[in-house]
Amino acid sequence: MTRRAYGFAVGLALAVGILAWVASYRYNLPLRDPDGLAGPSYIRLPAIVLIFYLADVVPRALIANRGFGNFRSSIKEYTRKRWDRSRVQLVVVGLLSFYVVYVAYRNLKGFLPEVRYRVIHDQLLKDLDRALFFGHNPADVMHALLGTGASAHILSFVYVSFLLFVPLSLGAALVWSKNVSTGFWYVTALCINWVLGAASYYWLPSLGPYFANRSIFLDLPETGVTRLQQALEAGRATYLDDPYATESVQSIAAFASLHVSIIFTAALICHYIIPSKYVRRSLWIYFVLTALATVYFGWHYLIDDVAGLAIGFLAVWIGAKTTGHALRKQRQPPSPGDGIIGVFPPASSGASGELESGSPAAVGSVAATGAAADKDADWPLAADQPSRSDSSTGSTSSV
User: Whole-angstrom Cα distance, residue 214 to residue 210?
Assistant: First the structure.
């Protein structure tokens, strides 16, 4: 992997990390490592990488050996071939860059009420929303069209799933990408999203429709989103009262929507590199539902989502330029053994006949990405299995 592929992300991480430290010192505010449901980021992120590695290697070894025979040697051989220097660089540099940028982003977001003291633009954004909707509130319109029953629970599930989507998509990019540079394209784009998102918070500080005027949302049932909103509001109040009295960070800011920007980033990059139409369509549907949920629950004004869309595109474009990619389709046909989660090894002649690259079974295999394969073409077969004459890759694919 060339330095070009990861140089920008490393430089960005250093710059934003220093900025967060300077802001912390200047305003006498603590730097925090924001905890999640599974613990702090420095534990959560490596654990996710380990899980993806095991999901990639263990099922392949079991299937290739038809059990536990030569299981350990197969795992060692695959790891040696798959985890070359470029892969290790991607995982280590990618994780560290993402971690530094994400922690800096969360802290800069938390510093917002102190740095931009008493500056709130919710009324401006609310008036703009009403102008775009001919005098109506977008959330009211959505409640009338979609209802406030089952729709609320479905959209709540979609919105909250973002908390898992980001680390899982990061793990997939680091571990499952066939092409190391393609994986770093997505990691770099994620980092750019966080930085541009933090900048947008400071440019136009706002709380969001729910926190500015919750009366519009009183008819919504209790869901995971409403509980999350209550928790964030309580955390903000505690933080503003005494930043040193809590280990959490202030997490309320509306403009722009990073839910929209990050999922748009993932969907757009996958649109360029993933051959499976089912994966691509699923991500676009997820993007649309997430955008609806942000307005439906009052997290964001409509213009916040538009700004998020712009940030997402900029992140993809800058990420492509800085990692040596172009904004065009780079899909390759799936190889035999590619799977949507990448746990199936390539077909061998020891099974029911060797799969031809153009056979229906091979063409029907679903791949999670189609970037150019790197050095993972040969899967170590069990001793009793005949070797394959082709060079189809058995590596897992993702963004």
Answer: 4
